[in-house]
Amino acid sequence: MLFIDKHMSYSNTSNSPISWNAIQYMVGEVQYGGRITDNLDRELFMAYCSIWLTDQVFQQNYCFNQSVTEFHYHIPDASEHSRFMDYIGKMPGNDTPAIFGLHPNADLTFRLKESGEMINTLLDIQPKEAGGGSGKSREEEVKDKLQKELLPMLPPDYMDVEIREKLKITKGPKGLGEPGRMDLVPLNIFLGQEL
């Protein structure tokens, strides 16, 4: 908004035309497009910018969606903030595919795909029966595997108090501190932090 405000104010004071190409580039490629990671999504967004960021938006009752849909997006012919807020409050929470130039079946396809993915996720996280008839759930099998394979690989437990006592008497390199002073021997400080 700040960029567009400055650009339009400059154009107005200098009596030069608004550079819609600059506005489309700044909005579509830099300010919003820089956050779009998919190239096809960026192309689509630039197509919207080329249609919607033009001189035509200043025509009375300019409509952003020319196709027949349940809601017509247009710029209200008003100067009061409250009328704009009322109009925004009437906008639908979810748009139909027609507003994006898609066939109405696109919504059905999307919902079927979304439902299928949800069902597959539920099936994947559901406990499964073990193949050998052991009656263990998948979680129990994973727990058993961790106990049998990973726990033996862990080093033996250490006693923090014993280690810190040993560090107190360990001398560092010559001239870098005295034993018993954890804060003066950098190696001991490092070992303490690692532990």
Strand and helix map with partners:
Layout: H1 2-13, H2 20-31, H3 39-52, H4 81-90, H5 105-125, H6 138-150, H7 160-169, H8 186-194
Helix pairs in contact: 2-3
Question: If you had to describe this structure to a student in words, what would you say it looks like?
Answer:
This protein is an all-alpha fold and 195 residues long. The protein folds into 3 domains: 2-100, Orthogonal Bundle (Helicase, Ruva Protein, domain 3), CATH 1.10.8.720; 105-153, no CATH class; 160-194, no CATH class. It is built from 8 helices and no strands. The protein has helices at residues 2-13, 20-31, 39-52, 81-90, 105-125, 138-150, 160-169, 186-194. The mean pLDDT is 80.
Q: How would you sum up this structure in a few lines?
A:
The protein has 195 residues and is mostly helical. It has 8 helices and no strands.
Q: Write the CATH fold name of the largest domain.
A: Helicase, Ruva Protein, domain 3
Quickly give the structural class.
mainly alpha
Please give the alpha-carbon distance between the first and last residues: 53 Å
Give me the CATH architecture of the largest domain, please: Orthogonal Bundle
- Helical content, roughly? 40-55%
User: If you compute it from the alpha carbons, what radius of gyration comes out, rounded to the nearest whole angstrom?
Assistant: 33 Å
H/E topology pattern: HHHHHHHH
**Total helix count?**
8
- Number of DSSP E strands: 0
- Kindly give the count of domains: 3
The biggest beta sheet is recorded as: none
DSSP strand (E) fraction? under 5%
What shape does the CA trace take?
Answer: elongated
The CATH class of the largest domain? Mainly Alpha
Mean pLDDT: 80
Poorly predicted runs: none
CATH H-tier superfamily of the largest domain: Region D6 of dynein motor
